[in-house]
Amino acid sequence: MQDNQGHDETGQQPQALSGIKVLDLSRVLAGPSSTQILADLGADVIKVERPVVGDETRHWNPPSFTDADTGDEIAAYFATVNRNKKSITVDITKPEGQDIIKKLAAESDVVVENFKVGGLKKYGLDYESLKAINPRLVYASLTGFGQYGPDAKKPGYDYIIQGLSGLMSITGPSDGEPHKVGVAVVDLFAGLQMTVGIQAALIAREKSGEGQYLDVALLDSAVAMLANIGMNQLATGKTPPRLGNAHPNITPYQVFETKEGSHFILACGNDRQFGKVCDVLELPLNTDDRYNTNPNRVANRESLTAALTDAFKQKTREEWLTQLQDAGVPCGPIHNVTEALAMPQVIARDMIVSFEGSPVRALGSPIKLSATPVRYHRAPPKLGEDTKQVLTQMGLTDEEVQQLQDNQVV
């Protein structure tokens, strides 16, 4: 609700997605990461969870945030992607539960789900069924392999998709086994792609008056993430090798060890910067025909890397970082997570946030809007804490809500 000056119920200017209602039937990471972005931007997100059990990630602990007064615990994993949402519990396998979802969908702008292909059709909660109720609905489905194709029926998991997509084949040491990325990057990237698609569909609806179906797949997202590495294969027909911390198209663009055994990143992106590296090292490698241009350096990567490796072991990491930064060469230390979260720049950018009355501290949103900024108005909800309120707002009486609870529908 807004007053005649355009302010919302908190007395603040409305956010970018204020007034957009999202019915979130997704769970675990990829889908909830998308709906959290929408919630951060002001959408009213209702998270639908199974009675008693809830989202699986509520139980993916330790670690947890613990309320000092009540002893209640919130799994850190669940808290990662579920702030700014309401939580209701509904058993969608029961007709009464399906009716609740249909009534909520009739009033929603967006439905998000990550069930297996066809998994909601048997409950009458698939796109065609809900479209008949609400033609303006944007219905977003996120699966492992998409809604069609020979693998469409298979379940999808981030780790497995990292392997299938080729991403693991280019991650890890060149002389070791393939590695996954340290976080579920495919889930998170697919969530971002879904967010973009949802907002595009909402803009299209303003022109057409009609909603549409959005099909996002983990495998598609992972293949898109191959970016220039995938393009290298398409351009040459050759399988890109695993290069560890080196770059396939630029060198020296990698990690080097220093005198005391610590490491730093050198990101030398052009010939001019390479000349500056050589000046700092007092080595005229840039005058050598093998190394004077980037294509030549890539072709002679091994001998160049060997020369630089020996040179960088002559001083400490801090000495090299100071000299290289003074020379205008991109470089930086390799932080652990504790060091990264303590960086003054991270703190200044509000990338660590808290919630009044909650023990949860969370990673902030990277989206910085000048007129309609992200707000952190609600901690990750307790399971079903908004069920009664949402059902009452739908028009149900206290007695009807109680009956649904007695029948274990909610």
SSE layout:
Layout (H helix, E strand, L loop, with lengths): L20 E4 L5 H11 L3 E6 L14 E3 L6 E3 H5 L4 E5 L5 H12 L3 E4 L13 H7 L4 E6 L14 H7 L20 H24 L4 E5 H8 L1 H10 L16 E5 L5 E5 L3 H11 L12 H6 L1 H12 L4 H10 L4 E3 L3 H5 L2 H5 L3 E3 L6 E3 L23 H7 L4 H9 L4
Parallel strand pairs: 1-2, 1-6, 2-5, 6-7, 7-8
Antiparallel strand pairs: 3-4, 9-10, 10-11, 12-13
Helix pairs in contact: 1-6, 6-7
Give a written overview of the molecule.
The protein has 410 residues and is an alpha/beta fold. The chain folds into 2 domains: 21-225 and 348-406, Crotonobetainyl-coa:carnitine coa-transferase, domain 1 (Rossmann fold, 3-Layer(aba) Sandwich), CATH 3.40.50.10540; 253-334, formyl-coa transferase, domain 3 (2-Layer Sandwich). Helix content is 36%, strand content 13%. It has a 6-stranded parallel sheet, sandwiched between helices. Strand 12 and strand 13 form a beta hairpin. The model is unreliable at 1-6 (pLDDT under 50). It comes from Psychrobacter pasteurii. Keywords: Transferase.
List keywords for this structure.
alpha/beta, 2 domains, six-stranded parallel sheet, Rossmann fold, 13 strands, disordered N terminus, three-stranded antiparallel sheet, formyl-coa transferase, domain 3, 410 residues
Overall average residue pLDDT: 94
Shape label: elongated
Assign a percent range to the helix content. Answer: 25-40%
**Tally of strands:** 13
The neighbouring-strand order within the major sheet is: 5-2-1-6-7-8
Beta-strand percentage range: 5-15%
Low-pLDDT segments:
1-6
Main pleated-sheet profile: 6 strands, parallel
- SSE order, one letter for each helix or strand: EHEEEHEHEHEHHEHHEEHHHHEHHEEHH
Q: Tell me the domain tally.
A: 2
In angstroms, what separates the terminal alpha carbons? Answer: 27 Å
What is the overall number of helices? Answer: 16
EC number: 2.8.3.16
Enzyme class: transferase
Pfam family, one: CoA_transf_3
Protein name: Formyl-coenzyme A transferase
